[in-house]
Design a protein that fits this description.
Elements lengths: L2 H33 L4 H10 L2 H5 L4 H6 L3 H22 L5 H30 L2 H37 L2 H26 L14 H16 L4 H10 L2 H15 L11 H9 L1 H20 L1 H13 L3 H9 L5 H29 L4 H30 L1 H10 L2 H9 L10 H4 L1
Helix pairs in contact: 1-2, 1-6, 1-7, 1-8, 1-11, 2-17, 5-6, 5-8, 6-17, 7-8, 7-12, 7-13, 7-16, 10-17, 10-19, 11-17, 11-18, 13-14, 13-16, 14-16, 15-18, 16-17, 17-18
Length: 426
């Protein structure tokens, strides 16, 4: 079996395991709280705060980089995420469920953020530059398939249970018990199949002073990178429109038509994201990785920034037209998801580009921390903004908010050959 073939045994499931808790914390929680009658303002504000573990994870990324192996952290955090999902399931039927379930979501979020550090570092250590470019579409696809499984299949299950039991709390509690069981299985699988690359070295017992010195060195070397101001601007602003759209798209689909929504049921929302959404996301993610590997990221960068931003216009059409059937909604979400899959490949590859060199694991974690901050801050006020403007005007605003993404892409430095297949250049 070739090295590339061996990567298929663990890489797809690893990024599925990375994406599933993220979508549960960031998106499934939104749908659940909406069904349990929490307001859009509260949902957007409090669930945006759940981005914080991904924002500040660079503060403990050197610990993952230095102590134990990345493989150890991956396996341990998958078990802890499963425990967090079980805790959420226990909290949902209780009094003050909003407060208690948010606390359990925080446990999942911190565990998942630590898992991300280890998984991304393991990816960098286990694959060479060309393999990283070739598999970026695969990893993004399975990451986003996990997200589609969460906001698609899992939500469909919850919707089916709502109809069968007429008990919203019981239905969502069962859904989160299911997530807990899935993570127990992922823990068992990765404990068995994850490779042990020579570069994934177990940390040595070192003094606190040495650990602190390495911690400081990690951050200093990152912020000394050339054109770091432009890089940070890109990380913060490339997804500023998507950050707002992501928080309000599910409530828009669920809200009554009288308040500007589409009036879909829980199972319908799961169906929309789990059919055309899943298929088109897969195609977009694969296309992004393969195109970058063929011609280099710089060649496709402008096409990718257009792909991630311009399809947001479909929500303007949906908000103004409020189509009576499900088919236009499925098509619109499919278009938006394809664009997201294609455009996010550029973002991931650029983070890998910035992270090359010493401390690659920790530097990638810093990049993803800025990415999370870029999602957290716009998302916090998006619910209030939507309730102030109404859905049609809010989605027009989202289109206006795509402008910074184009501006930062025009500024960033990038090697024209990065990610390109050497065989393609020959």
């Amino acid at each position: 079996m070739t090295a590339k073939s061996r990567h298929w045994t663990w890489l797809p499931s690893l990024y599925f395991a990375e994406g599933l808790p993220f979508v549960a914390v960031m998106t499934v929680s939104v749908i659940m709280y909406k069904r349990l009658d929490i307001s859009n303002t509260e949902i957007a504000f409090y669930t945006s705060w759940l981005y914080l573990p991904w924002v500040i994870k660079p503060l403990w990324s050197p610990v993952v980089d230095i102590l134990k192996t990345r493989r150890f952290w991956i396996i341990a955090m998958q078990l802890l995420v499963g425990a967090g999902f079980a805790a959420i399931a226990l909290c949902i039927p209780t009094d003050n469920f909003f407060r208690y379930s948010l606390a359990a979501f925080w446990l999942v979020a911190f565990s998942s953020a630590t898992h991300d550090i280890a998984a991304d570092g393991f990816y960098i250590l286990s694959l060479n530059d060309h393999e990283q470019a070739w598999f970026v579409g695969i990893r993004n696809t399975f990451y986003r398939l996990a997200m589609i499984s969460g906001q698609g299949l899992l939500v469909m299950v919850a919707g089916f249970l709502e109809n069968e039991t007429n008990d919203l709390q019981l239905s969502w509690s069962i859904a989160f018990y299911l997530l807990a069981a899935i993570f127990v299985m992922l823990f068992a699988w990765h404990r068995r199949v994850l490779p042990r690359p020579d570069t994934d070295i177990e940390g040595r017992a070192e003094s606190l002073r040495t650990l602190l010195a390495k911690f400081v060195e990690t951050f200093i070397t990152f912020f000394r990178k050339e054109h770091i101001g432009k890089v940070i601007a890109f990380l913060l602003l490339y997804r500023v429109a998507e950050a707002q759209l992501t928080k309000l798209a599910p409530p828009f689909l669920l809200d009554d038509r009288a308040v500007g929504g589409l009036g879909l049921g829980t199972a319908d929302v799961g169906f929309v994201y789990g059919t055309a959404g899943a298929l088109m996301l897969t195609l977009g993610g694969l296309a992004g990785g393969f195109l970058a590997a063929r011609n280099g990221l710089k060649y496709w960068l402008w096409w990718m920034v257009m792909a991630i931003n311009l399809p947001d216009a479909v929500y303007v059409l949906l908000a103004y037209l409020q189509p009576p059937s499900l088919l236009p909604v499925v098509i619109a979400v499919g278009v938006e998801q394809f664009g997201y899959g294609l455009g996010f490949a550029a973002y991931t590859l650029y983070m890998l580009y910035v992270s090359r060199g010493a401390h690659s694991t920790a530097h990638f974690a810093i990049c993803t921390g800025f990415m999370a901050l870029g999602m957290m801050l716009p998302g916090m006020f998006s619910g209030w903004l939507q309730e102030s403007l109404g859905y049609p005007h809010f989605f027009v605003w989202v289109l206006v908010a795509t402008i910074p993404s184009f501006l930062v892409v025009a500024m960033i430095p990038l090697d024209a050959e990065f990610g390109r297949d050497k065989a393609a250049k020959a």
